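Hi L., both proteins are below.
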Amino acid sequence: MDTSDNVIPAKAGIHQNQEKLDSRLRGNDKMKLAHYGQLAELFDFPQVEFAVRGRELLDCLRENYPSAADELSCFLNGIPERTLDQQELYTRTFDVQSITTLDIGYVLFGDDYKRAELLSNLTREHKLAGNECGSELADHLPNMLRLIPKLIDSELVAELVGEILVPALMLMIREFDPERMEKKNANYRKHYKTLIESAPGSDLTIYCRALKTLLCVLKEDFQATSMMEKLEGWSGQRRSMDFLGLIEKEMDIEENANPANSGFDV
């Protein structure tokens, strides 16, 4: 596997963990994967029943995933009560002046051709599994989570989790670090002239708790603790292609395309 800094390093021990993951997955009669459909709802654009559905998921997690339940409880207690405010928080986190993105391939590869390969492969698997992606791309996190319980190939599920989801989630969580958030905000202030404020009383970092909830569940279901430890150093390294760097690059391109007003003046 390519070990350049914009892909998952072979030294992380992914393939050494493959046999263990496959072995766990073959016990599908004992291992329930349906909760990944519920976890996907945490990352859908919030609708009226968003908090209610979150509480239902919390009840499901309490017994077998106590660490995930703790993270989810913090998330649900931290989101705004009004649906409109929840939607604004979601948009500010993932879409406009965003902290990170839910497009997993972009997290791992940016605009590199490897993302196009991933999208092509995922699109095929979604189609074969009958998993509708709606208006989002094949690597959109909720789409990938809904794909997990529909896949029958244990090796493919192991690869999806070990080589794609776990590394991407670790990188996404890193984007909520205060220093990285301030650097992104500095870029947004420079190019947009102002920052979009979240709803009064909202914690702009609260979706980090939702991402940690998912990572905790994956760690338990797929025995990924050792893998995460090996990836920890990699995810913390400075990378030439990460979300912060991609934002800076995109801002520079847009400013150079229209230096008179940077393309952002209204």
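That was the first. Here is the second:
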Amino acid sequence: MTTPRFQFRARRARAGVLVLLMGFVALQGLHSTEFPPSMDYETAREAPQHSNETPMWTNAPGFSRDVFTFVRVRYKAKEKNLTNFFWVGQKRFQIDFPDSDLNLSYRLQQMTAIKVNPEGRVLRITDPELFRYPWIYMVEPGDLELTAAEVPILRRYLLNGGFLMCDDFWGQAEWDNLAEEMKKVFPDREFIELPMEHPIFHCVFDLNVEKNKLQCPNVRYGEDSQNDPLHRTYEPDLARRTWDRPDAVDMHVRALHDANGRIMVLATHNTDNGDGWEREGEYQYYFREFSEKRAFPLGINIIFYAMTH
């Protein structure tokens, strides 16, 4: 039986927005990070979900390849545990999996006219199937280590029109690690901070807010932040913060561009969109304040922009 989900209220948006009319269930107790029993899933749908079950949907017969697919990248971690508070080792690429992948895919096909693969995929950069998919996702790349074999493949993928989203990494040390690894791929290119006037913030949902108002905390800090009605992003009281650590107060959205100005890599730093997607059906407050207002609108905008530019 499918678990009821929170209602996603339609906001000012474009591209055929639909209204989701469903109930909600409130679960008790904050979940810790959980991992599927295996590291070798080919799709998100085959992995057991640890949050609420994501509904299944179908696409028209004969169009199975003509859909958007959420592709999670399986990568090698340095296992330095740079600034994280728990040890995850080589399972780092599975943070929020499979729930975040399935939930964002579900919301994308509900809230836009994009047809979406209900299964998702998990691929290594060296997988020959990588070039079938124009959008790929890395979670917690603050501990990423690109191998010598992966670097030229990723460079070719991105220069040929691919789009990489990096998400859920916090603080200066984790940023420095991602920047260092991307220098292996593009030694002559620098990340550029995207201003809020950039069309990526307005292409579906019109996100006319300051960037820190899009910061999505993990579910524990998000639930705690309801004690502060302003949801301040900088507050010494741990019960009022939406950031993970003192050097991660400000959210950043930075991009690497190709020679024609197309975004190849988008890094959402000092924010946890993955938790916003993963935990959407667990806590009503977290859903209303962070999943609905921040993580889903930004994620949908990013995918829509990537698929149309």
